[in-house]
Structures are given as C-alpha cells and as structure tokens.
Amino acid sequence: MKHCFLNKKNKILVKEFNNPQTNKTEMALLAFNGKMRDKIIENFNQHFLIEGDHIKNGGISSPKTILSLLGGSVGALGLAGVASGQLFMATANPATLMSIGSGVGSAVMGASGIVGQAPFLPVKGALMPVAAPLIAFQALSTITIMKQFKVVNEHLDKIQDTLNTILYRKEATFIGEVISASNRISEIEKQFYICNQFTDDMIVRLALLEDKINPIFERYNYLYKNRSTNTDTGLVELDLNDAYMAIVTSILDIQIDLLKMKINIQNNPGYMETAAKTFVDKIDYYKKLWTTIQNDSSEINKVKEELKDAVSGMNWWQKNMPSWLLGKNAERKENENKIKTFEKALQHQPMIDGSIESAREFCKSIQPAINKMSLIYWKDDLGEHSYYTDDLLIEEVAAKNI
C-alpha cells in the first residue's frame, strides 16, 4: 500500500510542536510532497553541480536535529522506513508559522524564485513528548543568536585598521600575534562562506587560534584592571594601550566563539544550548569591560585637573621656595611632571576612542533577529543532507492560486 505522500499532487504535511520551555507552538515540521518536492531537491542538486554545495547561504547542521522531530512523527506523518527522497523543513520563522496557521496555502521560494505552490495539510494527533523536539529548538535558537552577532566582522575591521599605530611598544610580539590571529580567523570565515561547512583542518586551526588569543586577552585585561588612576599614578600605569588591546582581543574572542557555535550546530548539537548561553554571558562581560574603558578618559582628565588646581592654588612663595623656607617648590615640580604624564596618556585617547566607538556600535547593532533560517533535511542515494539555510522559504498566497 502506497503512502499518501507518494502522490504527485503538491502538498505540505505539517506537524506543529510546542516549545517545551514555554509550552507554546513555536515550531513546525513540514514534509514536502509531489512535483514541488522533486523540483526543490532538483534545484539543490543543480546548485551542488555548479558550486560544489547544495545551499547558497547557511551551513551544515547535524542530522540529529531534524531527526529528533522526525523520529516522533513517524506514525502521524506516515514516514516510517521511507524517509529516502523526502524533503523536510523545520521552521520557527514567525512569517512561516503565520502562513501555516492561516490554512490557505503557500508559495515555496527557492534561490531561483517560486518553485511551487501547495496547501498545508495539518497532521492531527497529540504533540510530541516534551523532551523530543528540544534539540531542534536549541538549533534554531543558536542560529538566531549567530545572526544577531553577524556584524562583528565589520566592526572588527574598523578596530584592526589602527593596530599598526602601536607597534612601537615593547609588546610588539603580542601585536604581531594578534594581527596574525585576526588574518587566520578571516581565512577560516572565508573558507566557511565558500563551502558552508567546517573541515577537520578548519576545526583544528580554530582551536589553535583560540589557545593563542585567550592568554593575550587575559594578559592585557589583567594589566588594565590592576592599575589605578589617582594623583600617584605613573606613566606605565596610565598606558591606555593595555585597554585598547583588551578591546581588540575580546572582539577576536567573540569572532572565534561565533565560529565555534557553527561547529556545534554541525557536529555537536547536544552542546548548542550550553555554548549559546556561555556566549551571551561572555558578551555581557565584554560590554561591561568596554563601558569601563570608555569612562577612563574622563577619570584621567579629572585627576589631571586636580593636579592643575593644586599647582594653581599655590602662591609665588610656595611655588618657588624650598620646603625649609616653608615653600612647595618640589611638590609643584612633581605635580607638573604628573600633569605632563597624564597629558601624554591622553594623547592616545583618539585611538582608544575609535576602538571604543567601534565596540559601542557593535553593541548597538546586536538586535533581536527574526529567524528566517530553517532546518532542511533529505536523504537520497548519496546519503543524508542536513542544513540550516534561508534558501528555502514559505510565502503566503491566496487560496485561488493553490
């Protein structure tokens, strides 16, 4: 007996899922059927022949994510033992869910435009067990977080433009390592953009870069945090380049973690949620650090003005006579030297301000992302194909067009 999905008439079987954390419907599993399914898979295969990859935008995801949905839907969707050749899509895109809820129909959008239209056919029956679809929710949540921080590279480029201006420091070795690490990270990102997946070589290189960047950040963060800003502060303590390098290495660390989240989606879906939470906590920590650094110049200027006031408050006798004649000549000279020290430190402020402004822009650009990407999966003679991508979208259409 043939299953209903073998019919060539276009239709999309739909199974909705409640988010186990909110108990609200926030995801749907779609099974494409008919000529439309064949056309979509054909488009993916054509892209593979031309570009060497099935998708244009997105990346490989572990098959476990969508199979966690398929496994519990076997009875309702009639998919037992016949997943080969079928195309599935798990979506949390609000626009898609609204279309599904309307019950009128859909236009299936591919890279080349509309590839088919079909009605939604809801699958009746009880919802999945609470724990079953959790991994898919975690995957789509992680993808949303990655989209929120997509702009990191743009702001990193702005900050890196000024790296060469501080090569005169004795820490030039660290500067060289940071520049090298930034270039290597960019290479890995470019490679991922081309092939939409991480090879073993890319994963090893990224791990080595993480081991390189983290100690450098901790070094400059330690130097920055353990200084003080007061009338007794010396020039070494006031060197704002420690703060600058803490900013640069923190953003490189963010860039590395974004790539690591893509690796988890591809290879380690069980760790996605933990990695995403850790990443968000790290961003909050860095934002506080940047805010503290941002306020440094005003603190330095405040102490400098205090020293100036102390000097200007002296009378002629105090300024020019030694202490044994009740003067403050030595104190005046010491304060004037300190003022020069603070002014020298503030000369670097435009560079620091530029990096801080880039960090601030980066923070402002972190906005809630509409999750247009979905998980797609199909199995054929060449094996399993599992991706997260926005190459396949659902658009609502009028009932008369179905």
Walk me through what this model shows.
With 402 residues, the protein is of the alpha+beta class. It has 14 helices and ten strands. The strands form two sheets. The protein has a seven-stranded mixed sheet, with helices on both faces. The chain has a three-stranded antiparallel sheet with strand order 6-5-10. The longest helix is centred in the middle third of the chain and has 27 residues, at 241-267. The two termini are 28 Å apart. Residues 1-7, 78-82 and 126-131 have low confidence and may be disordered.
What attributes does this structure have?
402 residues, three-stranded antiparallel sheet, alpha+beta, seven-stranded mixed sheet, single chain
Count the beta strands.
10
Outline, from the CA principal axes?
elongated
**Level of helix content?**
40-55%
Average pLDDT metric: 77
Layout: helices, strands, pairs:
Layout: E1 11-18, E2 25-33, H1 35-51, E3 58-60, H2 63-70, H3 74-77, E4 87-91, H4 94-102, E5 106-110, E6 113-118, E7 120-122, H5 134-148, H6 152-160, H7 172-195, H8 200-225, H9 241-267, H10 272-294, H11 296-312, H12 316-320, H13 329-346, H14 349-364, E8 374-380, E9 383-389, E10 393-395
Parallel strand pairs: 1-7
Antiparallel strand pairs: 1-2, 2-4, 3-9, 4-8, 5-6, 5-10, 8-9
Helix pairs in contact: 2-5, 5-9, 5-10, 6-9, 6-14, 7-8, 7-9, 8-9, 9-10, 9-14, 10-14, 11-13
